[in-house]
Amino acid sequence: MTTKIEPVSALLVVDVQVAFVTGAGAVPAAERVVERVAALIGRARAGGALVVHLQNDGPVGADDEIGTPGWELRLPVEAGPSEVVIRKTEDDGFDGTPLGDLLTRAGVTGVAVCGVMSEMCVGATARAALERGYRVVLPHDAHATYDIPAAPGISEAVPAPMVSRVAEWALGDEVEIVAHAEEVTFTDAKPVAGSVEDARDSA
């Protein structure tokens, strides 16, 4: 794991929605993750970095179905020139959204990624960022997922922490993994005028 990293100018907060981090349906490490993500958001704001909250629009009947309590973001958003919510329907936060354009117009070259689920939306978004040439920092204690249930004839149940670690490993050598969210530092991002408004209109 990397222990010292250069600052990044954007934070991608992936699917930190009520359905996934509160109540009976919460990921096992929900309290820890919400705490770490909240701290990251606070430091990103203080550092002038771009903060992007990705919000998944689940289908009818899903825990994160649009408009239901579970769909709501768990943490408050301070909407403004450097903070925006982008809604999505795919695991990859870039797929069909204005995220790529927003990062480009903000002059972002490095991002930190946090949230849920490690092997799904967090992993897919981190991989897509790597493929687009961004530096990607992934704090180990600021993303989480569920246990994988046992599959007869295949494996016993796989604990959530192991699933998260495998998800990190699967991203390859380019991702910068740090043990603790507090190791991630932020620097100023300067979005082009209109970029946040465009993102809202397109989301």
Measured by DSSP, the beta-strand proportion falls in: 15-25%
Terminal CA distance reads 35 Å
Characterize the largest beta sheet: strand count, sense, and whether it forms a barrel: 7 strands, parallel
Number of strands: 7
- DSSP summary: helix tally: 6
Question: Mean pLDDT score, rounded?
Answer: 93
Shape: globular
Tell me the Rg in angstroms.
16 Å
Index terms:
6 helices, alpha/beta, disordered C terminus, 203 residues, 30% helix, single chain, 7 strands, seven-stranded parallel β-sheet
Topology overview:
Elements: E1 10-14, H1 18-21, H2 30-46, E2 50-56, E3 83-88, H3 99-105, E4 110-116, H4 118-131, E5 135-139, E6 143-144, H5 160-170, E7 176-178, H6 195-202
Parallel strand pairs: 1-2, 1-4, 2-3, 4-5, 4-6, 5-7
Helix pairs in contact: 3-6, 4-5
Summarize this entry quickly.
With 203 residues, the chain is an alpha/beta fold. Helix content is 30%, strand content 17%. The chain has helices spanning 18-21, 30-46, 99-105, 118-131, 160-170, 195-202; strands at 10-14, 50-56, 83-88, 110-116, 135-139, 143-144, 176-178.
Tell me about this structure.
With 203 residues, the chain is α/β, with parallel strands linked by helices. The chain has 6 helices and 7 strands, in the order βααββαβαββαβα. The chain is globular. It starts with 9 loop residues before the first strand and ends with a helix. The C terminus is likely disordered.
